Amino acid sequence: MRISKRSPFDYAIIGAGISGACMAYHLNKLGKSVIVLEKDKIASGGSGAAGAFLSPKLASNSLYTSFINSSFEFSIKFYKENFSKFLKINGILRILKSQDDIDKCKLYEDVLPKNFTYLRADDIEIVKKDVSNFGGYFFKDGAIIDGVGVIKEMLKGIDVVNPLHVESFDYINGYYEIGDIKAKGIVFCAGNAQDFKQLEYLGLKNIYGHRIDVKTATMLPFHLHKSCSVSASHDGLVHIGATHIPNYRYDKSRDYDTEISKMIELAKSYLKFDGFEVKKVNFGARNSSLDFFPVLGQIIDVKKTLEKYPYIKKGSKVPKEKYIYYPNLFVHSGLGARGFVLAPTTSKILAEHICTHSNILKRLDTQRLFIKFAKKTKIGSTHS
Ligand SMILES: Cc1cc2nc3c(=O)[nH]c(=O)nc-3n(C[C@H](O)[C@H](O)[C@H](O)COP(=O)(O)OP(=O)(O)OC[C@H]3O[C@@H](n4cnc5c(N)ncnc54)[C@H](O)[C@@H]3O)c2cc1C
What we know:
Elements: E1 9-14, H1 18-29, E2 34-37, H2 46-49, E3 53-54, H3 63-82, E4 87-89, E5 92-95, H4 99-108, E6 116-119, H5 129-132, E7 136-139, E8 143-145, H6 147-154, E9 159-161, E10 170-172, E11 175-178, E12 181-188, E13 205-215, E14 223-225, E15 229-230, E16 237-245, H7 256-270, E17 277-288, E18 295-300, H8 302-308, E19 325-333, H9 339-356, H10 370-376
Parallel strand pairs: 1-2, 1-12, 2-9, 5-14, 12-19
Antiparallel strand pairs: 3-8, 4-8, 5-7, 6-7, 10-11, 11-12, 13-16, 13-17, 14-15, 15-16, 18-19
Helix pairs in contact: 1-6, 1-9, 3-9
């Protein structure tokens, strides 16, 4: 725990993962005083478990693909300029599975970030022959970031209180009070936690996964991705990672050892490892919205909005400016499988919105998830 400045702060940020760290970083840069509240250790959620690969999306042209790919380019620049010692740019190889994949990917080339080349099977000898048949796309800027290291570095000089499990807060005379801590606003960056009823309408879901740290003499010069990712070798280690378990809650009875073995077998089916010793297994969850776009913006007071405009439940349209919002209560979440790619961009968008009221793209903001929830919830019904 450290507090250098006394309350009140401009913003209390709940959660010290990549979302909270980037949020604190950008708000701080824009002159706001912030305090980060974390229930456990810094980066103890999904961010600490992640392989933290920074790779572009290889898919057809859509708003989602172009948003991911522009965020990928921004994140590489952001980490390079500000946190270069945590970044390893070895390039990332996306292995193709079939001739169909090759044909499709040719059509995607227009939306891919710069600096990529198509490599034929002969050019990627390190990958097993039966897997590399169809070659792959090599992105020169593909990287991994040391997730825990970069989060700790971003939070240097920022007040952090941990362990502090925030379960409730009061709003009194224009300030949120969390125990002794007072702040004018709160930003929820709590990842997969479902502690807060104010966020229920966003419908965020968790997917679990593993990062397996393996000691091997195999020297892999670049990161590679097929159904799971394997990092380039460093200090005699490679990381194997994927989020692959779509149960929304941690299930004690589930056989996670089998899931880990499956991931190891998958990696071994691509690469011939010279020695293979599992040093550490990290387990964590990341959360996504129903449409997979991140979620950022001010939080709607669902009850008050539906009491004022009950006909929203029947499908009538009300301009989003008329919704009733909790004062100065924001969320930055739903970063999905690409939290380290997206957070530098999305936290900057939200910080600018908070400080200058700049617009948030409709596909990212909290309002888009409200109507669907409003139609099925009992909140705001006469009998609720
Ligand atoms: C196995 C795995 C592999 C992944 N691989 C990649 C990858 O290769 N590339 C990539 O970009 N992304 C990857 N991701 C996704 C990425 O890790 C997530 O998108 C990102 O970490 C989400 O960050 P976050 O800060 O929102 O959540 P978290 O990292 O989960 O942080 C939330 C924090 O909030 C704290 N908290 C929660 N509730 C409270 C409360 N009530 N009070 C106080 N504190 C609270 C938690 O303890 C936690 O520290 C992976 C994820 C996993 C699980």
